[in-house]
């Protein structure tokens, strides 16, 4: 492939800056220092037929890499990290690299399967009591599942001084969790609870201030958009 022969790849990222999944691809591209062209997809209206040809599921993100389409944020991120070995992810080959990749993938899997759905579940609850109860459960799960995996973070996963794929995949959700608690979408008790987790809170504070994580982030528009989406979801469920 041309990219591995030293030629600059031609990358188009189909994205929307409010989407946490697309955010993953932005982080990876920035960490790898890869130039890319951006095409913003308006998610407020039905997808144009041309975009359904790019991604028949109609979702963002998608990338076009030297003419090849790749979809699904985790797959896009892993693909780019595999083409360009970097501190994000060691290249395959040998047990040490395989082990590091396995550890990173386990962290990502743990966040995705055990923790990531809580924020949405909490916002769907009607009463403060229900929200607080679920917030407590969320903090409990992060404490049980994630806190031990960050014991050697320094400041990033596995003792890495640079952002790894573990951060690139989870950062959009960590960032939103803190922002949503700050703006009343989630209970403040989530952050108070996180603050009792030394490994997680130290790690998260580093993650959410990285340039690669913040360069497309617009807290105001994301928070407003999320509030509208929650209101619409609640109205539809009545
Ligand atoms: N599993 C997908 C999820 C992507 C996703 O849900 N993207 C949302 C925006 S955050 C989307 O494109 N929604 C368009 C729609 O539902 O119409 C991924 O990881 O890429």
From TrEMBL:
Signal peptide: none
Domain of life: Eukaryota
GO cellular component, one term: cytoplasm
Record-linked InterPro entries: Glutathione-S-Trfase_C_sf (IPR036282), Glutathione_S-Trfase (IPR040079), Glutathione_S-Trfase_N (IPR004045), GST_Omega/HSP26 (IPR050983), Thioredoxin-like_sf (IPR036249)
Residue ranges annotated for the GST N-terminal domain, each copy included: 9-88
Bilayer-spanning residue ranges: none
PANTHER family in UniProt: PTHR43968, S-TRANSFERASE, PUTATIVE (AFU_ORTHOLOGUE AFUA_2G00590)-RELATED
Name assigned to this protein: Thioredoxin-like protein
């Amino acid at each position: 492939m041309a990219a591995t022969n030293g030629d600059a790849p031609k990358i188009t990222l189909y994205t929307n800056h409010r989407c946490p999944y697309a955010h993953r691809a932005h982080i990876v591209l920035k960490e790898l220092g890869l130039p890319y062209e951006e095409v913003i997809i308006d998610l407020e209206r039905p997808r144009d037929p041309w975009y359904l040809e790019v991604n028949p599921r109609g979702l963002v993100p998608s990338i076009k890499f030297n003419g090849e389409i790749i979809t699904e944020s985790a797959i896009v991120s892993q693909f780019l990290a595999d083409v360009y070995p970097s501190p994000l992810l060691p290249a395959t080959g040998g047990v040490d690299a395989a082990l590091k990749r396995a550890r990173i993938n386990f962290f990502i899997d743990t966040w995705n399967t055990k923790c990531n759905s809580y924020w949405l579940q909490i916002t769907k609850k009607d009463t403060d009591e229900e929200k607080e109860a679920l917030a407590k459960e969320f903090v409990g799960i992060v404490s049980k599942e994630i806190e031990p995996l960050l014991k050697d973070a320094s400041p990033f996963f596995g003792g890495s001084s640079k952002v790894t794929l573990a951060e690139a995949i989870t950062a959009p959700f960590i960032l939103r969790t803190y922002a949503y608690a700050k703006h009343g979408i989630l209970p403040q008790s989530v952050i108070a609870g996180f603050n009792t987790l030394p490994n997680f809170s130290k790690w998260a504070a580093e993650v959410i201030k990285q340039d690669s994580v913040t360069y497309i982030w617009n807290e105001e528009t994301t928070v407003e958009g999320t509030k509208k989406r929650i209101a619409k979801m609640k109205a539809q469920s009545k």
